[in-house]
Amino acid sequence: MARAGLTVDRVVEAAADLADEIGFEKVTLSALARHFGVKDASLYSHVRNLQDLRTRVALLAGGEMIDTIAEAVAGRAGKDALAAFAGAYREYALEHPGRYAATQLPVDQALVADSPALRRTAEITYGMLRAYGLDEPDLTDAVRLLRSTFHGYCALEAGGGFGAARDVGRSWAKAVEALHVALTHWPGEAPEGA
């Protein structure tokens, strides 16, 4: 029997909060049970196992992140949209480190197809990039460039990996400017086997 007051949403939200406090990889069912003052078994009425919990946190965080990004890019296009997208991405990653780590979890593609938030992520990201005149397969390549650049920068920044005296915000702005230039002058498709 489920403990009164516990719901799937409440359990997942608490796990996301705990991830921000102690780190996503340190979230366990035991730690979450202690948070609620219940036995581990009480949580199995709400989540199947730790992987199910982590996947649910990833989907929650992905939805929150794209909502933040969507609000930032609304009514913008081109370089302005890219800068707003990048800024919202970085802000979310730095303010919610555990949730952000969850967004990097590989998620079963069937769940992605069923997740309105993750479909919205693709729509907003690809929509922003279409302003640069990109079509497939260039859209996929551009998404990978943005994601790897944003993630790498945020991971290094969060971990204190930038030791030079230059302000990291200024370097971030230069990186976004460089991405804009790259997207504006996107290379054509290389011939097969090249």
Automatic annotation (TrEMBL):
Keywords: DNA-binding, Transcription, Transcription regulation. Signal peptide: none annotated. It comes from the Bacteria. Pfam families: TetR_C_33, TetR_N. Gene3D superfamilies: Homeodomain-like (1.10.10.60), Tetracycline Repressor, domain 2 (1.10.357.10). Residues 28-47 bind DNA. InterPro entries: Homeodomain-like_sf, HTH_TetR, MT1864/Rv1816-like_C, Tet_transcr_reg_TetR-rel_C_sf. Residues 5-65 form the HTH tetR-type domain. This is WHG domain-containing protein. It comes from Streptomyces gottesmaniae.
